[in-house]
Amino acid sequence: MISHLHADHFADLIPYGFALRFAPRQQPVPIDPWPGTDEPARPKLYGPPGSNQFLTDLDDTWSLGQHFEQAFETQEYDPHGAIEIGDLRIRFCEVPHYVTTFAMEVTGPGGGRITYGADCCPNDALVGFAEGTDLLIAEATLPRPERTGVRGHLTAGEAGEHAEKAGAKRLMLTHISDELDPETAAGQAGSTYGGPIQVAREGLEIEI
Ligand SMILES: [Zn+2]
Ligand SMILES: [Zn+2]
Questions:
Q1: Which ligand is nearest to the CA of 174?
Q2: Among 24, 48, 91, 115, which residue's beta carbon has the most beta carbons within 10 A?
Q3: Last residue of some domain: 42, 59, 77?
Q4: Residues 121, 71 share a domain
Q5: In 3D, which of 135, 112, 116, 130 has the Cα closest to residue 175?
Q6: What's the confidence (pLDDT) of residue 170?
Q7: Number of domains in the chain
Q8: What pLDDT sits at residue 53?
Q9: How far does residue 27's CA lie from ligand 1's centre (Å)?
Q10: In what order do the strands lie in the sheet with 135-139?
């Protein structure tokens, strides 16, 4: 699922796509130790409206051939509708950012909810969308508000404010620069939100 078409939210799909297209295990003929397959993995890739053309243009600009189309089953989501993937249900909410961006809610079969805020500046839409959620995953990009005055991201303190106003049961901070300290970010969020706070990291698994 792609929330918006900024490079930090889709660029990793390019090397992943190469793995899907060219990995030995994905080939129709046996390549030891892989037996060969007629059904190579071609995962569904959902993007916002306009993303199919965007990815085709990217293929052309970077001379990638039909990279995205061959590696993935690309599809645009309707942000006014819902998508079912297995026993998960996904809904969308547009949030203010520099380009058209959608927050997402994933609801599991037991009713557990994860709300992902994508990239956004402070806004009420996310607060309403995340009301009572089990886990709000919020960006905490900034060490301080944008100096130009044009808002597009959140500070960790503002991420905490959104979780507090929404009554989220837990908060996870993400989209933090690796030049910033996760502990400091969690501390700042803790000054505005009274619930449990975690900072996202690669490989982290949580249960909702
Ligand atoms: Zn962005
Ligand atoms: Zn981003």
A1: 2
A2: 115
A3: 77
A4: no
A5: 116
A6: 98
A7: 2
A8: 97
A9: 35
A10: 83-85, 88-95, 101-107, 113-116, 135-139, 171-174, 197-199
Structure tokens at 83: 């998508």
Q: Give distance in angstroms: CA of 139 to centre of ligand 1.
A: 10
CATH code for the domain of 160: 3.60.15.10
Domain that holds residue 151: 79-208
Q: Are residues 107 and 197 in the same domain?
A: yes
Please give the pLDDT value at position 183: 95
Nearest listed ligand to the Cα of residue 121: 1
Cα(6) to centroid(ligand 2), Å: 6
Q: Which ligand is nearest to the CA of 4?
A: 1
Ligand 1 centroid to Cα of residue 206, in Å, is: 25
Same domain as 197, residue 96: yes
49-91 pLDDT, tens digit per residue, is 999 999 999 999 999 999 999 999 999 999 999 999 999 999 9
User: CA-CA distance, 112 to 29, in Å (whole number)?
Assistant: 43
Say how many Å lie between the CA of residue 29 and the centre of ligand 1. 41
